[in-house]
Amino acid sequence: MLTFIRQPAPLARRSFLRAGALGCGGLALPSLLRAEAAAGIRSSHKAVINVHLDGGPPQMDLIDPKPDAPQEIRGEFKSLRTRIPGLHLTELLPRLAARADKYVFLRSLTGAMGNHDAFQCQSGFSDKDLAFIGGRPAMGCALSRLMTTPQDSAPTFVDLMQGRPLVRNSARPGFLGAASSPFRPDISHLFHRGLEEGMKNELARRGDGHQLRLSLHEGLTVGRLHDRVGLLRELDVLRRDMDHTGSMQALDEFTQLSLGILTSGRFAEAMDLSKEDPRVLARYTPDVRKPADAFQSMEDPKCGQKFLLARRLIEAGVRCVSISISDFDTHSRNFSAMRYLGPLVDHALDTLVADLEQRGMLDDVMIIVWGEFGRTPKINDKAGRDHWPKVAMGIMAGGGLKTGQVIGATDKHAAEATDRPVHYQDVIATLYHHLGIDARNVTLTDTTGRPQYLVDIGQPIREIL
After folding, report:
1. Are 323 and 310 in contact (CB under 8 A)?
2. pTM > 0.90: yes or no
3. Residue 198 half-sphere exposure, CB side, CA atoms within 13 Å?
4. Predicted confidence band of residue 331 (pLDDT cuts 50, 70, 90)
């Protein structure tokens, strides 16, 4: 459980460096990269919310209906007109249809590797890319290296993904190492996401450090915590003097970071949904009923409140928040599952967009909703759709985008992109662009000392900027 002690008065702002590496060894002192100051993003409030539809959403059952396709292709859902002339979604997305001018619909997402996690949605790269030196970093981890300053009042990157993305460590720092790991608080007490037996075993093998659980032991006050930190510093003087790698200095800064998170009233308030107006909680909770034949890994309607939690964290100063909604892995009972999941996402996403707009935050917060691949056009003998890496879907909003657009098109069966293919890296480059970072010209130094660009083939999606 994520718990914080209550303070009688606000504390001074703490020194935050990297939020997710508490308890990890082998730290390297991060260096500020040159593009941050040049872009002038230090004082901005721009942020990203990355929503992963865990399992791979079926494109033709959500934003790319094919009403003229044969029954074994088009499925059960009717086509629904939207506010944009000529654009149809399926009947599962009535809110998005009514406010389609607030969204960008990506129908031609290509380049999926077919892996059942969220790493490509977090980085744009295959998990095998640069695997010999630890792999590529997730975007949020790169932002932690690029944007974190000692004056920050919250972590740069908070990963709230559950299910496969958590088990498979989709938001991993790659070659950046533990110093750039995400801040990953345990939210299982807020949102239950059942894991299959194989996932439980896989998560257990990753060890206790895979998910961060922050709490103060009962009876340990902030004063005592400060005393302990001071004592540790005094005892480590000799080791620090003997250290030539800088790791002890980094550890000192991590200690300050950990203490800051534990005692930060602002961040604790953001994580505590009980502090939210009950009417707002109700707004984010879809009035949908979980089907009787729901998968074990399918979440309750309350999971819509993850969108609210993301908004609260952005308000607290977080730059990048990742959440997940499960379970779109519909090898069987696709239509039963989608009659539940489609309206759930429709409600929660549109509530978030409306909420951000009312608060004057929408232009500062860019949202992406997508999955690791699409689903097969042909329905299988279990009334399901299988993995389909050839084309996938995405929905974007906010961030000052030119919304009310459809980008790309697919063939008559929603099987392949026929116009304006958009690569996963193009989306990642667009998110970086929103934050003032030119992903094609900014580099991170890998463990061999070589510079690595944030993307290698991606370009910001020009039509929506």
Report:
1. yes
2. no
3. 2
4. very high
